[in-house]
Amino acid sequence: MRILCLHCAQRAITRTSKRPSPVFYEVYAQCTSPACGWSGKLLVEFATTTSPSRAPATDVRIPVDRASRQVLLEQLNEC
Q1: Which one of 37, 38, 57, 58 has the lowest number of neighbouring Cβ atoms within 10 Å?
Q2: Which of 58, 62, 57, 33 is nearest to 47 (CA)?
Q3: Origin, by domain of life (predicted)?
Q4: Would you write out the chain's pLDDT as a tens digit for each of its 79 residues?
């Protein structure tokens, strides 16, 4: 994932990250431009599933997105 600085549009790098839950990351980023110097925290969440896992983790619950759900139901009806 490429992160761009909100202020100068230069590349930002990840300094560190935390994963408080299986579907959520807190990412601490810093702009690479010395003239800018911005740093901050980004919140990254896995919001929907577009294709289900063939080896799902029991503690991960990510809803299937609407369009994908319809396609999956149609595929099941074909069987």
Answers
A1: 58
A2: 62
A3: Bacteria
A4: 899 999 999 999 999 999 999 999 999 999 999 999 999 999 999 999 988 889 999 889 898 888 887 778 877 788 7
